[in-house]
Here is the input.
Amino acid sequence: MKSKRDIFQDINDIKEMMSKSSKFMSLSAISGVYVGIIALLGFGMSYFFADLSIDNIKILVITGLFILLVSLSIVFILSYKKAKSNNENRISNALKVLFIELFFPLLIGGIIIIWSVMNNQVWLIIPVSLIFYGLGMYNISRLSLSELKYLGLSEILLGLLSLFLVQFSLIIWLLGFSLINIIFGLYLHNKYEK
Here is the structure.
């Protein structure tokens, strides 16, 4: 017969196995720093097209989509490498669910941004991009690093702020997508990867 200590150890082992199968813990924290740097480059391009005519808005939206794709690719590649080095199943169900949970808000936000451009409501691009990115981060926090919830909330609050401070939207976007990502990336890297 097992002792109470053995039973509790068995329960903890089962709990750990369930957590590993339902959470993707190999999300690369340093990728947040890279995403922030890419956002800085995007801001530089936005600043270059500061007159914001409708033709330039289309260029900025295309640039933004390119930055989003590069950023997500970096996150995926670095997380894949981290999972591989941890001897985890490289493409686990948890990773698939994580990307679905992230992509759904980004897709909805992207559709609203396209509508905004088509209807000359370009002032909505920055708030919508921040809010829906924040919703994506908040969504995946329950499937990965719980601290991502605070990243998501920060992005959502900045998006809401930019709705009311339209004249400072580009600066708020810079703060949200670059500085906040770099700070969170460094924090998570120091906490989990050092």
Q: What stands out?
A: The helical segments are 4-22, 30-48, 54-85, 93-118, 125-141, 148-164, 169-193. The first helix runs from residue 4 to 22.
